[in-house]
Amino acid sequence: MTGTTELSAPRELAQRLDLTTGLRTGQRLLARFGVIGALAFVVDVGTFNLLRHAVELGPLTSKTLAVVVATTFAFLGNRSWTFGERERGSASRAYLLFFAANGVALVIALVCLGFTSYVLGLTSPLAENISSNVVGIGLGTLFRFWAYQRWVFPE
Fold it and tell me: The pTM is what?
């Protein structure tokens, strides 16, 4: 085998396994964004629990580190797969914008949680999880998808 054939084999296999290639551009972007987001969510939750319960770091430290790891994972996945067909600019600039978009999404989740807890007075675990992990993450995800397309990975 030649070096070119060996190098292109993994790419060809990846293209065959990619179930999103038959979708329209917008549908493909949404599907890929959803897959990367779901995997990043698993990375976030898994890293948090590992750091919090196995390593026994504090909850805020564990969550902060988990978000950094998950955001880095999501950046790499979105840059190489979700928006991989777009022209690439500076990786460091894209990474900074990506973290900024995720910071705004975090603020959205915190506002939802704060409103539920301090304005509505709903402090049960169910209310907090719905406000931050359903409504907050849902709104944050919509913002991130828009911000990634507009600023982080523009056409």
Answer: 0.63
